[in-house]
Amino acid sequence: MLVKTLRQSRIPFATVALALLAGCGSYDNIGRRVSTALTPYRAEVVQGNFVSREQVQSLQPGMSREQVRQALGTPLVSSLFHADRWDYVFTLRRQGVEPQQRHLAVFFKGDAMERVEGGETMPSEAEFVSTLDKRKSGKVPRLEATEEELRAASARQAPAAPAPQPAATPAAPAAATNYPPLEAPAR
Question: What is the pTM of this model?
Answer without folding.
Answer: 0.49
